[in-house]
Amino acid sequence: MAANKEIELKLVGDASDLDALERSAPLMEAGPARTTSLSSTYFDAPDLRLHKAGVALRIREIDGGRRLQTVKTRGDGLFARGEWESAVERREPDLNSLKGTPAAGLFSADEPFDALFTVAVERTVRQVTRGRSRIEIAIDRGRIFKSADPVSAIAVGEVELELLAGAPQDLFALAADIMAAAPLRLGVASKSARGHALLEGRLNDVANAQPVPFGDEPSAADAFRAIANACLVQLRMNEDVMLARRDSDALHQTRVAIRRLRSAFSLFGPLLRHARTDELKAELKRLSEPLGPARDLDVFLAETLADERERRPDESGLLNLEKQLQTQKAKAYDGALATLRSDEWRRLVVELAGWINVGAWLRSRDEQIARQIAGPARDFAATVLEKRYRQVRRKSRRITKITDEKRHDARISAKKLRYGSEFFADLFADKPKRERKRVVFVKAVKRLQGRLGALNDVATGHELMADAAQTGRSRSAAFAAGVTAADGDARADALLKEAKETRKALMAAEPFWR
Predict the structure, then answer these.
(1) Residue-level pLDDT at 473
(2) Which residues contact 110 (CB under 8 A, 6 or more apart)?
(3) What is the DSSP annotation of 163-197?
(4) 92-96, 259-263, 428-432, 470-474: range with highest mean pLDDT
(5) What does the alpha-carbon distance between residue 362 and residue 379 come to, in Å, rounded to a whole number?
(6) What's the confidence (pLDDT) of residue 71?
(7) What is the pLDDT of residue 2?
(8) What are 320-348's pLDDT values in tens digits?
(9) CA-CA distance, 329 to 457, in Å (whole number)?
(10) 234, 237, 238, 243: CA torsion to nearest 10
(11) CA pair distance 439, 454, nearest whole angstrom
(12) Cα–Cα distance between 81 and 74 in angstroms, integer?
């Protein structure tokens, strides 16, 4: 069985998007197309041990004849994966052909395999030359269905760009041309992952941030790519939920993914020194800004105003204030969705993927930076975490006395320290004692960030109430806005005391990276 590293970029769209692409110049100018029927059945043990280990096992039938057994790994989560492929005779997995793959040793000869789901597609393939690279463009149309229930199915509409020979950068250059021809988006979920989501009833679920696993002895560059790719996966999964429905949790997790990605760029800043890095960071900040007002109104309505109505049930103006803010929220969501549907946003996400995975920062001419990029991720992480810890300690001194602006800066620093501690967790999980220290430390920094975040919500609420008082459609709503702002001030005093105590707890926690 041959072992290969598959380098592939996936774009997704609906049937009309794929039709538009078929008629576009990039494909019309490509080589001749051939269409094949593919039916791929995915297998696992009853306890799903392969899936839990990040491994997929399938048997593919090509036009009802030839059969290929393939083992794939999760890889970096987005761009590169391990792939082991061999010809087999039967429709069930061949244990002998699993030797030398990550699936080897996970099964014994007498254990059963379960057929989980099947991916049936019509694949149209072309080959193109881009720069000095040879690239296969595969357009898949079809469906994924459960083996036990073929009627329950989800659609497949994908464009896979696979590098056959040459430079990975050319994949992203070709993707830019294709996305100019059809409104496709970066694909982050493999067919295997979508099949498991179908099985488990998790389709269109909101995606929370997940721990980032690293391979053996990762470099600092490996760590950045794994972390940033994980952020992109979370962003795109929640973006799809947002495009399907107006979901406050999906909006929140989309913003979390963006904040985590921006924090990753900041934490790895010493390695990413390049004008293009600054341009992409600025674009990400600019284009994601419309998501903020919608989230602010979500939080205010669901928490602050709900508490206020419970506190003052006889204040009739609160209902008018709520109606006014709900109208504002609907407009804010319109703005957020307009951003996510824009060509600028679609292209930016793919450009970010390209820069993260194959950008020029990986080939720095500065010898010191190049050594850091290739150096151990754990050493880099310890240096970064120490720097961020000292920053939080300095910025949060006299936390009850400093200005709102300085507390905001302390909150941002605490957020980056927390995200860094979560990002690098796998690098410091070598000993149970160190892991226990990490859990205590992350809990402490998370609590401090939470209190500072609540104080920031109070400040944001003040701005919302000031605007509501000026633009309100009724005197009762304006009065209720003033009362709510005043009650927020009273809450801030208690939050300041809590922030002081949580800072003490953080300073008492032992840094786990030392």
Answers:
(1) 66
(2) none
(3) EEES-THHHHHHHHHHHHHS--EE--S-HHHHHHH
(4) 259-263
(5) 18
(6) 92
(7) 42
(8) 888 989 999 999 999 999 999 999 999 99
(9) 16
(10) 150
(11) 22
(12) 6
Q: In this predicted model, what pLDDT tens digit does every residue of 202-251 receive, in sequence order? A: 988 999 999 998 888 999 999 999 999 999 999 999 999 999 999 999 99
Strand partners, 6: 81
The answer to whether residues 296 and 375 touch, using CB atoms and an 8 Å cutoff, is no
Q: Are 56 and 190 in contact (CB under 8 A)?
A: yes
List Cβ neighbours of 340 (8 Å cut-off, separation of 6 or more): 239, 242, 243
Q: What are phi and psi of 83, to 5 degrees?
A: -145, 130
Q: Is 506 exposed, middle or buried (0-12, 13-18, 19+ CB in 10 A)?
A: buried
Other Cβ atoms less than 10 A from the Cβ of 235: the count is 25
Which contacts qualify for 399-405: CB closer than 8 Å, 24 or more apart?
A: 399/496, 399/499, 399/500, 399/503, 400/496, 400/497, 400/499, 400/500, 404/455, 404/459
**Mean pLDDT, residues 423-427 taken together:** 94
Alpha helices in 97-136 (DSSP H): none
| Residue 99 to residue 84: CA distance in whole angstroms | 10
Instruction: Please tell me the predicted confidence (pLDDT) of residue 3.
Output: 47
Give the bridge partners for 3, in sequence order. Answer: 84
Q: Are 417 and 394 in contact (CB under 8 A)?
A: no
User: Residue 55's beta-bridge partner residues?
Assistant: 73
Nearest-angstrom CA–CA distance, 299 and 321 = 15
Q: Quick count: other Cβ atoms within 10 Å of Cβ 408?
A: 17
Judged against a pLDDT cut of 50, whether residue 106 lies above it is answered with: yes
Token pair 């949060």 in the structure block, residue: 396
Confidence label for 498 from pLDDT (cuts 50, 70 and 90): very high
Instruction: Let me know: does 201 contact 397? Beta carbons within 8 Å.
Output: no
Three-state SS at 83: strand
What CA–CA distance (Å, rounded) separates 397 from 389? 13
Among 38-42, 86-90, 343-347, the minimum mean pLDDT is found in: 86-90
| pLDDT reading at 387 higher than 70 | yes
Name the H helices within 268-342: 275-288, 291-299, 305-311, 317-340
